[in-house]
Design a protein that fits this description.
Layout lengths: L13 H11 L3 E6 L2 E7 H9 L9 H4 L7 E2 L4 H10 L4 E6 L2 E7 H11 L1 H4 L3
Amino acid sequence: MIRPVVCTSPDTSAHDILEKLNSCQYSGIPVVEDNILIGMVSERDILELFIQGKNLKCTFARDFMIQNVITAEQDSLILPVIKTVIDNQILRLPITHQGKLVGIVTRHDLLKYILDTTPEFALIS
């Protein structure tokens, strides 16, 4: 799980989000208000704004973020988390505790967990 989470606010411009995504080398970023997850913004969202001819400096996260984000609770078991990621075609799954964002699990994190904890993978030579 990625901690601390690099976040943005609903008042951040698409241009500034793009710079943050580029500098962190992330493909998406949560939008939070008072540490409460209110949306997600991805590279794809920025690309869509660009091809629509939107001014990235005058378009803000609140205008294009994905709302009703699928999340998992911090104490969730790994198999339901993997199933959620697969069933919803999610690249990154925000992890919450009592409604507050505490981390993000990526597909890479899940694959690394499987590799590190599954004995048959460790024995392959």
